[in-house]
Fold these 2 entries.
Entry 1:
Amino acid sequence: MAEAVAAPQGQPRWVALTALVLGASVIGLSAILVRLSETGPAAAGFWRLAFAMPLLALMTVRTTGQIGRPSKVALWAGLFFALDLGFWHYGIRYTSVANATVLSNLTPVVVTIFAWLFLKQRPSNLFLLAVAAAVGGAWLMAFHKGGGALLNPPLGDALSVCTAFWYALYFLSMGEGRKTQGASPLMFWVSVVGAPLLMVTALLLGEPIMPAGPGGWAACVGLGLMHVSGQGSIAWAMGRLPISTASVVVLIQPVVAAYLGWVLFAEAIGPLQALGAAVTLGGVVLAQWASRATR
């Protein structure tokens, strides 16, 4: 989903919310596809952006008539997204799918504080309660994991926490860029900047670059399609919603990832995690209600 300029504010709010929820749900597949890619963590990030690039280029030309030149904010967003993918994919390698996704989605805390201090988007008390509930539910989901042998959970969890800061910087950069630019051009240049950085990282770390078989290639192509549809929907919605609000909604991603990790990798979901998922979703709904009431 994309357009040439920032979205008009007169469109129904539910359209942006629907796109945001669907995009976050699709992105919940990414951790699964990284595990199935048969490549190194950074290499999987490279293939994700490489396969997304042609589609994003076509979408950009279709909406703007030309590729154009990248803005400074797009270049910064590309750097932050490459760091986000690199740290997160290595987190996925060492810890559980749910932990990697949950811990990396502490982003709303960083985004809300930044938007409050620097963008003058002061949150209401109810919205802060919603953020606390959503993040608290996410932490509860990661409190206890079972099933599947994990390589190094403490290291994976630490990398995933670092991911939250890179993703927050990416989120803030995209939010700023969406004030004047369409989603497709921004995402295209993010991919142009991020792909070579991830490839260099993969080579320096001696990762396997090429997938071992058809299944690995299918997962890499799936990552590209998921990036365009999922991350693209999120970027599109960010032109229509406050940054802090959008960052809370994407917390449905760990709920989706936890469910898929349970189905595909036998990563058990216990009562605490089920409760955490319910609390997270409740916090997301409350954040939307609080944001709408403030407006």
Entry 2:
Amino acid sequence: MDEDIVIKVRGLRTQFGTEVIHDDLDLDIRRGQIVGVVGGSGTGKSVLLRTILGLNKPRAGEIELLGEDTRHTSKTAQQRSGVLFQNGALFSSLTVAENIQVPMREHLDLKRDLMDELAALKIAMVGLPPDAGPKYPSELSGGMRKRAGLARALSLDPEILFLDEPTAGLDPIGAAAFDNLIGELQKSLGLTVFMVTHDLDSLVAICDCIAVLVDKRVRLATMAEHMQDSDPWIQSYFHGPRARAAFDSRSVV
């Protein structure tokens, strides 16, 4: 049903100077899915995420986010989406709790005590200890900063969660724990997750389907379907040694 489509892209063209990144790209993401976005270097994975969010203006095409044209997206639609950028993108001069409260201050009219309570709740939701709240980002490990950034992305109880390379820079144990956290949050909160990643383990562990950027367009399919695709890059990606190791570790094949 069309009402289940929460991200709808039609005829997207993104271009920087003479370099065309996406051309006539179509994409539908349905409510409740965890979608991994992959592609070779220069295929515009993060560019696609930022364009869907309205942070990058396309040369052509239409994008609907939660039923609203992103060219005219209201603050209400913005509140319904949360974003975790690479490395957390936290404000270094603010504590973790203050970072989480930034979206609240921008979009809501809440008393300080209530914002403090909500920040503490988000901190707990992402698996951080209570004493993380008054700390500054520089006092946290890389993994904790990721979780703090995720807590801020969840600040306004979004319906869609956008993640840009969420496990980059994490060791295998930390990356697996973060994957599990995303999966648990998706189930408990009913989130739709749009995740740009290079991590095959993440794709195998939690993604319902995978959007592969190739030839300036996107191919959305399940892991099994992509493994039957004859495209050379897709064949190399899903049948290479790293893919086999990811499948073996999860007993997928």
